[in-house]
Amino acid sequence: MRVPLYSRLPEIYRIRDAEQTPAYPLRAYLASIEAAYSAIHENIESLYHDLFIETCDDWVIPYHADHVGASLLSGEAWTLRADVADTIALRRRKGTLAVIERLAANLTSWPAHGVELRNNLGWQQHLNHQRPDRDTNLNLNLSPAPFPQPARGGTMPIRDPALLTLLNTPFDPFYHTADVKPAFDGGIHYNLPNLAIFLWRLHAYNLPLSWPVYKGSREILSLSGHQARYVVGFDLHPLEGAPAPGDPGYPADPQNRGRPVRLFNTYRHNPNAEPPTLVTLDGCPNPMPRARLSTDGQLAGNPAAYISVDTYDHTHFDVGDFNTGDVGLNLFLPESQFAGRTWKFRGENLCAWENGLKRRLDEFEIAVDPNIGRLLFGVATAAQRDALRDHLIVSFAYGAVGEVGALPVDHSPRPAMVSGENAALVEITGFDGPTVLQDALADLHTRTSPLVIEIQDSLVHDLDLASVSGVITDNGARTFRLAKSLVIRAADGQRPIIRLHQPLRFRPVKVVGADAAEQDVLDAGIAALAVRLEGVFLTRHTTLALTEPLIARAALGRLEIIGCTLDPGGWQKRNGDRAPLAPALNLDEHYGFVAASAEETAFAPTPDIDIQRSIAGALRLDDAYQVYLTESIIDAGSAPDDDGSTKFALAALTNPTTDWAPKTDVRSVTFFGRVRVDAISGDGTLFCQQLEVHDNQHGCLKFCWFSAKSDRLPPHHACVDADEAPLVFTSTYFENPAYGQLASQCDWHIRQRGPGDDAMGAFGFLLEAHKWANLSIRLREFMPVGIRPLLIPVT
User: Fold this and answer.
1) Cα separation, 587 vs 585, whole angstroms
2) What does the pLDDT look like over 133-180, one tens digit per residue?
3) What residues make up the domain containing 42?
4) 453 belongs to a structural domain
5) H-helix or E-strand containing 612?
6) DSSP states along 37-54
């Protein structure tokens, strides 16, 4: 660490400096020199860092590229650094399959796997030169090995379901006839010149420790062999499902309730292996294949690569004792009943398990349905059944397109100051009790400094405002009174769920002052008053009706929702139906005060509603706010091909069909539903249904997509509509892994002509168009003559 100049002076000069009047003139003089010295020092240090591609500033990357003769690319800085760093090494190995895989991984940051498709073509041996020892039993580096493979020109083995699941995948071991169709559709075309480059675009996010939902048990009375006496069922998604109030389709049988979750495996590879292997069959961020989870009877089964089982002491609980490992599903059982047990596994369809299985579970056998996230345990005694019911803890991985919504990722640095004041920090975890969040939110009206509540787990926290000290009934509804700003955030790597019994409502402690001077002070304090939600998942308790919003009052200076999910509903049920939709925000023009009351009259600020990288249900706001939406999905359940005539994603609360929502600024937003606002400006937004703007003479929208359904548009530039550019999503169901992802059938204007010449919509910040373009440029430089690359997205 650099020593300040004043500290380097001999002690005698510092003593004499302190004796002067006024004291320390020399220190003040050297302080001004120190500022310039520090700037020079920092500049020299940055110049040293700029010598290396790993540490240089982003603007230096093109200069390093020029030094090694690499053509200039644009896009995500991480991928450009990797491209330049590996330029010389890859040129030395130019023309090899490993180079192509490494290029794809460097330029996209996606897992990549290359396959020379000529090796998958079937052929017949010449009768004069027969080779009976060739292509009959090859080791494909799969586990377990050796792995059986049919001879070229032979028939396909059909006895092993796990082996058959590999058909037409990146790890297909079967031989095919030549495919001579044009290879421009993103599919696999087996032919001599084709080199397939498979890319995994979805990310696998590992949800830390959580409690699964117990779905009951069955006692089997007629047993034979080692069959289990008790079968115990769980759903991995920690939420029960759609709340009963207002949902006539909500099944009374708890077995048929709950939310499906598609289980993913984690991405695992060894970058130092020789030859380097970037993707393996059982180490890619793929949905778990059901057939690969079976222990017995299938040569291609490998459950150890997907599932781990461990025990813990539930009487001395310590979160630090849990090792989630590298696999996609980790199960932690109480050691009092299961220490030393060896488990078998089975991939199974468990949609109606209570009606029976194809084959009964054995003792200490686990059946997993990765398509819906459901588990069955076969145990021998009632004590083991009860231990699972009360103490099972799970950790699992699930897929998503990118960091939009509440995800178990690293969040922004913990704020030390909020609204310009030093903040108090409270760390809580649900493992300490079910009411820790309610206790932390007590007596907000008496606080003298802002409060930051950081949730250190991924559990479900019930929040009943009737049980929180200091919450009052104001204008007929329970409301938080805030003396200072409030932040509720997730710790790094966590995704806590807050289940609300009532909508959240916020107001200041005091709005009306005794005189003009006090009123000015109150107005300034209210304008600085803010509530920030960061990284949390807000949902409804069964007591909160679907017609009720999650946030119903924001009498504040600012409401910030960053990296959150405000449960919109609309997931796909197990029978294929869509779950009911529900609103996220209902904010009226009176700010929750009694109409025409002294408090409403005195309330001066125009609250800012700022939503960033979040997923939310419909927004209902009267024209008394200012709305900012950035890289988010607002879901009212109306995809581009739906009617959507009555589904408003953003509209006024009082009368959505005739009134107007507030002035709104949008940056790369996806609206599933109609938008009706007073004024709007921004760019990169997908309006999947009708857009109506009251003030269509001001503001401007750039690089957006419109539905062409009687839109009333403001001035716009470089935009397209449905008549000239079809819009298609991979999925529009909330909680589907590909939710909100643009499909390859989308018009190129949507995928490549958004802001910064990249995609429109909530995921434009991923810069996928740049990744595809950069990869195509480099493949033209590195591809051997006569070889045709096929870029194939797996997810």
Assistant:
1) 6
2) 555 444 344 444 445 555 665 667 677 777 788 888 888 888 888 888
3) 6-49
4) no
5) strand 608-612
6) HHHHHHHHHHHHHTTSTT
